[in-house]
Amino acid sequence: MSQLKNDCFALGTNLVKFDYALGELEKITKPVVDVEKISIDSALMRILAEDIISDRNVPPHNNSAVDGYAVSYDDLSESGETSLLLAEHITAGHPLVGSAMRGKAYRIFTGAKMPIGSDTVFMQEDVFVDENKVTVPAGINLGANRRLLGEDVAEGTTILKRGQRLRPQEIGLLASVGLSEISVYKKLRVCVFSTGDEIYDPSGDAPDGCIFDANRFTVINSLRGLGCQVTDLGILKDDEQTIRNSLEEAAVEHDLIFTSGGVSVGDEDHIKSAVESLGNIYFWRLAIKPGRPIAFGQVLKTPFVGLPGNPVAAMVTFIRIARFIVLRLSGVSDDIHPKLYRVFAGFDFSSRGGRREWLRAQLKVGNNGDLYAHLFPAKGSGILSSMVNSSGLVEIGEEMSQIRNGDLVNFLPFNEIYT
Ligand code: AMP
Ligand code: MG
User: Fold this and answer.
1) What angle do CA 117, 122, 127 make, to 5 degrees?
2) Ligand 2: centre distance to CA 146 (Å)
3) DSSP annotation of 321
């Protein structure tokens, strides 16, 4: 990052397009975190720092997929029923000692190792047992109801890749190949400030003309949802010297700094100049709505994100831009962009175009079973309750200026964000 020049993004009067900004961010962000070994017990949502190659087969032996009777296919009559001698029980975890004998049916249970010489299993519902005789019908396929050694994971296969985030299924797969310790990236250390003379912590009172801080709580919890180690650094007054000192100090112990507010061009917006005096701003004016002023830069050598002050704008820009930065710096290598789903518009909309725009919407199932996005009535980017009462964001491309009820639109569900 530190090698970047000030002009790597279009600054000045031109608004930077959303896709261009993300493309540039992809080029200049890379993992900044060290590696540590941890137990899979505490690996949820951590990020793998190594490729994982299995040194064994899963399952490690052929085994029965059902409760039934294991036979040798060669013993079966092709045209009619076959009678076999009932042999001993083989239960899961207790393999037969020695090999199966021809002409016998072994009572076997799900997960039990197939005896050597047996290759096919009849389900118990399909056989007739009388004393020590088992009668089986014709027509079964060779290998029926048998799970093969290595059919899940073959020895030598790369099962997981560096940069993958560990969900329950990845952790289960690690356990299934016998791994209990893995290398992951250390958690990204992120600090969060709010800014503004009018912003007060909800643990006390807010004097006349002031409001409670919402952004620190949405941002901190969004970061925790992405697996970061977060430091809450409170609220900064609108004073450039204070802001500069606090940012400089924060840069030492953290991998990434977040602020919200103070990033536009008002007289009391000091973030941009404070950051520039300590490092660089790469962009701060994007062609997006809401949230046009969002800054990305660095304070000393530490990456910096300045979110807009309006609580909805802060959340939307976090979801669509800051999240990408966080995951890239954290070491995630693929699937970083949240997936957008095509749903029907339950609304009419028109805009001048030219900006990527996000509309808060609730998904509802229409009479025909299709999903429709219905816009939240209040549009202001200070209306945080709109985020609570929406299921996600309709994303509108720069070229799109007119949407009619029933058109297909892109929808980003909020529950895509922390996965
Ligand atoms: P600013 O970008 O500082 O001009 O702030 C834009 C708007 O967002 C103003 O109405 C601020 O009062 C509001 N705002 C800024 N920071 C916060 C915050 N942490 N929580 C709630 N509202 C905020
Ligand atoms: Mg402010």
Assistant:
1) 125
2) 67
3) I
- What are the tokens at 391? 């299921």
Cβ of 295 closer than 6 Å to ligand 1, yes or no, is no
Give the span between the Cα atoms of 220 and 232, in whole angstroms.
Answer: 7
What are the tens digits of pLDDT across the range 388-413?
Answer: 999 999 999 999 779 999 999 999 99
Q: Tell whether ligand 1 has an atom less than 6 A from the beta carbon of residue 310.
A: yes
For residue 294, give both structure tokens. Answer: 């969002």
pTM: 0.91
What is residue 135's three-state secondary structure?
strand
Q: How far apart are CA 339 and CA 113, in angstroms?
A: 42
Atom of ligand 1 nearest to the CA of 216: 19
What type of residue is 325? I
Mutate to test the pocket of ligand 1, among 215, 221, 315 (most ligand atoms within 8 A of CB): 215
What's the CA gap between 15 and 54, in Å, rounded? 49
Amino acid at position 19, single letter? D
Mean pLDDT, the chain, integer: 94
Report the 10 Å Cβ neighbour count for 316.
27
The rounded distance, in Å, linking the Cα atoms of 101 and 2 is 72
The per-residue pLDDT for range 153-173, each reduced to its tens digit, is 999 999 999 999 999 999 999
Alpha-carbon distance of 374 to 392, in angstroms, equals 10
Q: How far apart, in whole angstroms, are the C-alpha atoms of residue 17 and residue 9?
A: 10
Kindly state if the Cβ of 317 falls inside 6 Å of ligand 1: no
Q: Record the tokens describing residue 186, joined without a space.
A: 């250390």
- Report the separation in Å between the CA atom of 307 and the middle of ligand 1, taken as the mean of its atom positions: 10
113 has a pLDDT exceeding 80: yes
Atom index in ligand 1 nearest the CA of residue 260 equals: 16
Contacts of 40 (CB under 8 A, 6+ apart): 171, 174, 175, 179, 180, 181, 182
Question: What are 198-225's pLDDT values in tens digits?
Answer: 999 999 999 999 999 999 999 999 999 9
Written as one letter, the residue type at 208 is: D
**Cα–Cα dist 298/318, whole Å:** 17
d(CA 90, CA 8): 69
Taking only Cα atoms into account, the Rg of the chain, rounded to an integer number of angstroms, comes to: 30
Return the percentage of the chain with pLDDT > 90, whole number. 89
Tell me if 214 sits within 8 A of 242, measured CB to CB.
Answer: no
